[in-house]
Amino acid sequence: MSKHYPLDLYSALHTGNPGDIDFYLKACCGRGPVLELGCGAGRIGAALVDSGLEVHGVDIDPEAVTAARHFGVQAVHDDMRNFRIRRRFQNIIIPYNGVYCLLSDESVVQCLRTARRHLAPGGKIMLDGYAADGIDELVADEVNVEDKQLGAEIQVGRRRYQVHERTRLDPTRQLVLAEYEYRPVTGGGPIRTSIRQRYLMSYQVPALLAEAGLMMTSLTGGYDDQPFTSDSEIMLVRAERW
Q1: What angle do CA 84, 204, 213 make, to 5 degrees?
Q2: Strand intervals (E) in the chain
Q3: Which of 44, 40, 32 is nearest to 91 (CA)?
């Protein structure tokens, strides 16, 4: 998440992928404790806590850390590339495009190496993001997606907003800039913010994991273990130590 993105606006719009909470509940059940990197305000962590798991979290946004703690997540304000927690975990999760917030291969590997150091024997790392392999077919250096309105109005506190998005894509560097404009329904100036990400292709993931001392144990196209194909919308990766 962009550090300039107000948490209440982000949480109201970005509510996760259908099925992600149920997947992580099932995957982590009976295999605590859990560490979530990029825990945000605790959307997934809160569900894990409610299921009886001990959940720790790391996020670079101090406001998000405070919100996650409210739900029982033992969250710390830190960078997921080089954090240090004095324990190891059976499950480390990086959900909802969290690894895409790292804008270089070096940052991804650094994060995965740090996660590996926090894995308990037999522990697993799980991460998911939108499937981006189809973007590789684009040949333009930069593609601009025109302004579009996102779904219905959203409620944030006492105000309602229409949200418009414009996406700028640079496939040569695998960068995407999503710009959001929250337009108050009852009048007033809009609120503008953005998220910058660097997406990964499925074929890049095994090498990045290997450089961090991990091996991919599965790659699926969603939360029900469907095969990963060119039509998949989700890339779900499981990994463990070599």
Answers
A1: 40
A2: 34-37, 55-59, 74-77, 89-94, 119-130, 143-149, 154-156, 159-170, 175-184, 191-198, 214-220, 234-241
A3: 32
Three-point CA angle 121, 127, 131, nearest 5°: 150
Which one-letter DSSP state was computed for residue 223?
Answer: T
Per-residue pLDDT, averaged over 132-152, amounts to: 66
Summarised one tens digit per residue, pLDDT across range 9-51 is 999 999 999 999 999 999 998 877 999 999 999 999 999 999 9
Radius of gyration of the chain from Cα atoms? 18
Kindly give the pairing relationship between strand 191-198 and strand 175-184: antiparallel
Q: Which two tokens stand for residue 64?
A: 């998000």
Indicate the pTM of the whole model.
0.93
Whether the bond between 33 and the residue before it is cis, its omega within 30 degrees of 0, is yes
Query: What's the pLDDT tens digit per position in 169-205?
Result: 998 899 999 999 999 998 889 999 999 999 999 999 9
Would you state the structure tokens that stand for residue 106, as one six-digit string? 């070096």
The residue whose two tokens read 């025109």 is: 146
Of 87, 92, 64, 93, which is closest to residue 77 (Cα–Cα)? 64
How far apart are the C-alpha atoms of 62 and 77, rounded to whole Å? 6
